[in-house]
Amino acid sequence: MASSALFDLSESDNIYRHEGVEAYRLHQERKLDTPFQEERLAQDPAYTRMVRMAIVTPRNAPAHERMVTTLKSWGVIPDQAFLLGRMEKARILGALRPHIYFDDQVGHLHSEAGNIPMVHIPFGIANRRAA
Description:
Elements: H1 3-6, H2 10-19, H3 21-30, H4 36-43, E1 54-57, H5 64-74, E2 80-83, H6 90-96, E3 101-103, E4 118-120
Parallel strand pairs: 1-2, 3-4
Helix pairs in contact: 2-3
């Protein structure tokens, strides 16, 4: 996926087009510690984030706490989290209408919620092959 599909790179692109690659490189170096969306939100409070992340998981209390602790340690803050226990995810996915859904189990890559693009992430114990 191109980074321009995730982030508003208009400012950087404008510098590249009008001032050249060296000015673009210097601009990027000056902005290393400024996340793309945070800068845009500071400039325009009406800005809507281009990328939103929701966690939809069968985990619930107390297992969710490790997930939350891990995400915090990574500096990842989801916009929403749905801790479903054993509830079916179709209702949540139908309401969220995500552009893409990731799951570690092939059997979970279907949904009664409709035509949602789903991607298999082949990690974890559910994906280990017997030796």
